[in-house]
Amino acid sequence: MRDAARARTLERTSARAAHATARAERARPHRTPDELREVVARGVAELAGSGIGAPDEATADEVVAWAAREFGDSMAVACSMADAVLPHLVARHSPWVDVLFLETGYHFAETVGTRDAVEQQMDVTVVDVLPRLTVPEQDAAHGKDLWARDPGACCAVRKVEPLHRTLQGYEVWVTGVRRDEAPTRAQTPLVTWDEKNGLVKINPFAAWTFDDLLAYATEHQVILNPLLTDGYPSIGCAPCTRRVAPGEDPRSGRWAGLDKTECGLHV
């Protein structure tokens, strides 16, 4: 069994490298912001139906299929490694798609383990998005445990800036944001123009619930972070995340006790 697993890993590594070579050969210039805004307008007309939450909204699979046709290789998936459902769905339409993992240096061991399992077992290309400063370098520059004194500044340095920098290499990023996660996300559209990052943003799971996510993972045997079913329905950096009691807002465990509800990636 170990030999078979090793063979599958080698086969996947070879296929990933072949895809990277082919992608480089067919690379094309990125479209301008105005051209991409026109793509957003077409996408809204095709996918949104009669409005947010309407019965005729496109399904997650339809949204991802549209994105794969429209953007091809110029698509990135953002994944916190709370689960691998989004990479799994996107890879069905776009094998070896880039999956961006924000390696903040503060993750739970389970999150890093999930990241490694995704890279080893799925037909995707995991890209570690790194801050400019390591944790020790940040401590030296800003003082130890910046996350405790100024979590907004810590997120800006370790998440927002690195992602913004990395996204400049793509035309669209795909996220797993859901409307049921928090009041701040209740109006999340399926497709929109991301003014802050200057590219298209796709949210195929906007209409999903947490139960929908788990059902998909069960049906397709998708990798889940073990913390997800251990009281952590929303998983961030270890110092800033606590367990959530039954019935609580799924994101109430993020920055608990602080006047902060978002890291800045989606606002």
Automatic annotation (TrEMBL):
CDD domains: PAPS_reductase
Main location: cytoplasm
Region Disordered: start-end pairs: 1-33
GO CC annotations, alphabetized: cytoplasm
Basic and acidic residues bias (residue ranges): 1-14, 22-33
EC number of this enzyme: 1.8.4.10
Keyword NAD carried by entry: no
GO biological process: hydrogen sulfide biosynthetic process; sulfate assimilation, phosphoadenylyl sulfate reduction by phosphoadenylyl-sulfate reductase (thioredoxin)
Cross-referenced SUPFAM superfamilies: Adenine nucleotide alpha hydrolases-like
GO molecular function: 4 iron, 4 sulfur cluster binding; adenylyl-sulfate reductase (thioredoxin) activity; metal ion binding; phosphoadenylyl-sulfate reductase (thioredoxin) activity
Entry binding sites for [4Fe-4S] cluster: C154, C155, C237, C240
Family the UniProt entry places it in: Belongs to the PAPS reductase family. CysH subfamily.
Record function comment: Catalyzes the formation of sulfite from adenosine 5'-phosphosulfate (APS) using thioredoxin as an electron donor.
Protein name: Adenosine 5'-phosphosulfate reductase
Provenance organism: Sanguibacter suaedae
